[in-house]
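Newbie here. two chains, one complex. Structure please?
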Amino acid sequence: MPTDACLDPYVRCALSGAAQTALGVSDSAVLAHAPQGCNYLVDGAFSWQDCDYAQTTTLCTKLCEDEIVHGGEELLARTILEAKELDISALFVLSACGPEIVGDDIVAVCEDMQPKVDFKIIPIECAGFRGSQYDGIDLALDAMLRTLAETRPTIPNSVCLVAPHANANPTWMADLAWVKDVLSRLGVQVVATLTHATPLSDLADVAAAEGVLQLSHDAGYRAVAYLADTFGVEPLCAELPLPIGMTNARRWLTSLGERFDAEPIAENMIADGERMVTETCRRRWPMARFFYRTPAAIVADATIGIPLVRFATEEMELTPALVALRSANLDAERLLERELNELGLAPQVVCGTDVYTTRRSLEAVRPRVVFGSTIERHASEGLDVPYIFEVVRPVRQFRLLNREYFGYRGILNLLECIQNEWSDRWRSTQRRYAARW
Amino acid sequence: MEPDERDDIVFHGTLQQLVEKVERGEMVPKLQASHAPMCKFFTSFYVISGIRHVVPLVHGPTGCPLWVSDIVRTRECCEFRGVPLEPTACTSLDETNVIYGGEGKLLEAVKEADERYHPDLIVILSCCCSGIIGDDVESVAREAEKFVHARVLALRSEGFGGDFRSGYEDAFELIMDLMEPPKTIRKRTINLIGARMGPSLTEFSDDLDEITKLLHEVGVKINAVIAGGCTVEEIRRAREVELNASWCYDWGQKLGDAMEARFGIPYSRTGQPYGLKATEEWLMGIARPLGLEKEAERVIREETERIRPDLDYLQRTLEGKTAIIEISEFPGPIRALSLARMAEECGAHPVVINVHPYTIKERMPSIKFLLETGVNPEVILTKGLFRLGSFRSSRETERELEGIVSSFDDPIFFGNAARYPGCPVVNLTLLNPVYLPHYGFRGIHNIAALLRQAMENQRLPRSTLFRGMLYGNETS
């Protein structure tokens, strides 16, 4: 565990996570009550949520020394009024470190301004110092649920989905799409997704869901608890790793099938999916499959990292020697521990790793294979790690199309990633002689 | 319709007139929410991380360093620039630190950073949080130096504490504290100042490569490119040079003036070397004080001869034309004005469109310098520039640009291919390395090639795909 005095972090601050969450509500705008630099975090969140800049506007109060000395509430009020010209249903007002320390009361300003505008104003107090981006996601979900969620009659066979965006797959939207497709085939209605392209009205209806599926091991625990405690929404698949790899997908689908009395459908999906993966591999014949018990490191968020342990061990026949997770929360740590015990593995485990700790851990463990990101590619320089499978943000390869890791196509996407890295490793960088033409 | 008859134009006059309006506060944007460039912290960070073996130690929460480190450091520097992965350390201030102060944690962080990374220099960068709660970063830096091997400096770089320019300037001033009294004066040696390349992405190296090549041909030695990947040792010896020169007047100006005032090192004041005259001025501005005029004249003569066909083409093609210039991408107005000068030199009438008054305000000393040197083009600002939201602003300015271009005879657009003005487009984007550099003689060759492409292919259809992506289709 790294000390927190001198951290080279993987994970951004609470403002960033709150912005990621707010930008997942469609037909809305985000106003950062912040100096102009913090707005770049909001811009980063914009691409994270796959927003279309033709449809989503981000605003900033651009606080300067004057507002830090005299307070920025008046400027915030004026900027909210400026947003009147936007055709939106909701405006999320996010506070950064500066205004929170000087005591700007964004909640009061939003209340005052609410009668003057046609859209709903939702304040989220999410200064960077309140925690990591995962804490920011929790703060934003909390603000949304407390402000917008209403008691509704329960809709049978329905769920809401929590924190799909707390997932370091660069195209996590495909994971969400896979989940929705699976639920639809099981006859389960998705009442609301918290959040991705979520209409504001869905947030009001969220408590009508019979169950709640948390799609992250990094964030969303508080929202699930709130929905369960306040509205009696039942947490589903809570003790299972997310569905990456054959066994995880099978367990996850089986659990949902049992819960919604759709076992035959789930069994068919599992059988079809496993057959499809095997047959595709037989046809395409991936060569990168001779890693038998090669020591591997997994450096990722908990959402991808924990299920990857089983995928690496079972499908790839690797031996995880290091599991370094970017976040640190007890629920995820317990889940990882269970997985490791079940598999009989005893790798070095680091929770809440930073770049320095990762480097040192890689140095100590000396894995031959790393599941990670571009950061590990560079952080492992000089350590003779032949293969870096870039599966979590940031990755070098540009993706125009979303690729899931969840489910059966997800297995193929991971294998594709592994195969391409394997080919790169074998690529000649020099020619022994020149051709004559 | 003549430009002045259009109701979407909010300013039409000379650069001088625009500057006067900005100074009177008339053109200062009313919308706080629009146009948000980087904050002071980011730009300070950029400069500092342009020094090798430095630990920028951010005294703040994790959001501040991560924007710069995660995207810029890893992707741009390690992948594209051959820079190793360098640390971005952070004290990760939390709620407790905000209440009780973070100075103790900071001191520990300096010690840890020294032990972990073995740097030559640690620079503590304060953020909004640490600035507001009043952590005394300078005292911590002084105290910490007693315990570590590296030099430790502190920079007050709170995001709210100034505009993005002040971050560059304060960081350059801080770097001066590392400069030691000269043991000798190294003949015909200069510093190139005002650069911000290295572990952070700031500038494109091709332009710097071109002017470095020219200087070597003239016989000028470079001690350091500050802070374009220079070492602490090079900075220490920065006072041993005969002259400072900037690769861009705007960015070097503050450091150049300060080193001249404090150390008596002369500073060559010239604009960006776009086009023949500016390149000549830039090179002679360095060669003359170093006694290398003859060598410089020879290089200029040879290089000019080499690109003679390009110069002839530029002159022949631009003569009598209107050059509509819009530089919406980095680095903005100074580049637009440098291009305006080049276009005028080639016989065209330059019209600079949509330089944001905010950026004029931020770059006032440099803009005034350019005015003094006679750069005073026609400027048009449109309503769309001030619209709320980047999509609405870019869509509206695109429509306005198309209208304005159609009101001129023989227009040629100098900007980038993200515009569809219905006339030849000289694609001056910095995102196509094939046609870089733009500086110096190779720059003239490249700009001539881009002009030729624009003129010879103007009848080919433009991409409805990319246009739709940028500006939406008619229904969006």
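Moderator note: The longest strand of chain A covers residues 319-325. Residues 186 and 261 of chain A are 9 Å apart (CA to CA). Thread marked as resolved.
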